[in-house]
């Protein structure tokens, strides 16, 4: 059984790992300062995990961010996680992590288990040309790459979870990767509710979005698709709070209900 973790909405969009300056006896003499590997303030996208010589590529959502507050928060590929960390020079120690319990595809769940095991304990960090490699004491490794933050407007956002208060819930079975939205420079927003397509207007301010009247197609949809559609429609009405952090976006109504989205994979689109 996986540990249940209620992650605040801010953590759905802002997912982080920590670093602090510490003294080390190594170097030119006792008491000299060994600088920490400069990995803070960066969104790290997980590229792959190598265990016993076998390399496994990561799902698009797998990532970690780094702050100076001693917490590691990120996404294993489907579920969000949080853990205490300590950085000393090129050594990063990650305590056992808490994580959400969203249902995931078996292949993704297997990757999550592998990544979770590799990101626990004492890790040696090596940073080269924007690529970070974390190596365990037995020689397994996690490879990550720094990624710039995409803009809110013009990016295709794929809905990947529903928000209820301070918890994240997986999408209804069979609706994964179907709902998405894109904000246009002309003040429009359009996309898919999981079955029907929609258009509306969106007035974006510093931390909120005010949606206009929503228009959509009228196709008959399956039960899970309609359940998702109804929840998304409610979150695309009136004024909602949004939070954007690197490749994650959350929209939350005043009652705490809403949804989270990530940058969509458009590599296969024409």
TrEMBL record:
InterPro entries xrefs: DUF306_Meta_HslJ, HslJ-like_sf, Hsp_HslJ-like
Domain DUF306: 38-142, 151-258
Residues annotated as signal peptide: 1-18
Domain of life per record: Bacteria
Record keyword Signal present: yes
UniProt keyword Signal present: yes
Alphabetically ordered keywords of this record: Signal
PANTHER family in the cross-refs: DUF306 DOMAIN-CONTAINING PROTEIN, HEAT SHOCK PROTEIN HSLJ
Protein's UniProt name: META domain-containing protein
Native species: Streptomyces xantholiticus
């Amino acid at each position: 059984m996986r540990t249940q973790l209620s992650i605040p909405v801010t953590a759905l969009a802002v997912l982080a790992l920590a670093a602090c300056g510490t003294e080390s006896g190594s170097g030119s003499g006792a008491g000299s300062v060994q600088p920490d590997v400069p990995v803070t303030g960066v969104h790290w996208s997980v590229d792959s995990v190598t265990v016993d010589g076998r390399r496994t590529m990561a799902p698009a959502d797998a990532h970690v961010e780094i702050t100076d507050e001693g917490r590691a928060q990120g996404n294993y590929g489907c579920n969000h996680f949080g853990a205490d960390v300590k950085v000393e020079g090129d050594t990063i120690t990650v305590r056992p992590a808490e994580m959400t319990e969203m249902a995931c595809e078996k292949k993704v769940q297997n990757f999550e288990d592998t990544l979770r095991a590799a990101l626990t304990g004492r890790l040696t960090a090596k940073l080269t040309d924007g690529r970070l490699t974390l190596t365990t004491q037995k020689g397994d490794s996690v490879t990550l790459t720094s990624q710039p933050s995409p803009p809110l407007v013009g990016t295709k956002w794929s809905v990947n979870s529903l928000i209820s208060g301070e918890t994240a819930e997986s999408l209804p079975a069979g609706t994964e990767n179907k709902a998405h939205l894109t904000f246009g420079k002309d003040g429009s927003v359009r996309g898919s509710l999981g079955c029907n397509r929609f258009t509306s207007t969106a007035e974006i301010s510093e931390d909120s979005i005010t949606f206009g009247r929503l228009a959509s197609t009228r196709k008959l949809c399956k039960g899970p698709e309609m359940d998702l559609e109804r929840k998304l429609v409610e979150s695309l009405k009136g004024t909602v709070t949004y939070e954007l952090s690197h490749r994650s976006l959350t929209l939350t109504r005043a009652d705490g209900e809403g949804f989270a989205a990530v940058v969509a994979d458009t590599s296969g689109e024409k």
